[in-house]
Amino acid sequence: xxxxxxxxxxxxxxxxxxxxxAEMRPASSEAGAIKIATSMSARYxxxxxxxxxxxxxxxxxxxxxxxxxxxxxxxFSDD
Length: 79
Prior knowledge:
The chain has one helix and five strands. The protein is mainly beta. Strands 1, 2, 3, 4 and 5 form a five-stranded antiparallel β-sheet that branches.
């Protein structure tokens, strides 16, 4: 099983008082993901940078690990 870590930036906007995801952006590194999220934070109500382990064979992903967040983001914890 070949796993790799991927980095994604998820911006959020409000639609009828609910947070909804805008278009996800990839990044090539953890530092890059944080830098992109920081620069996008002025344009969205919330932005989060995540690292996620992906099984290259099946495409399955684990729960994202939050790297940085700005503003309002949804809570994805399994509480």
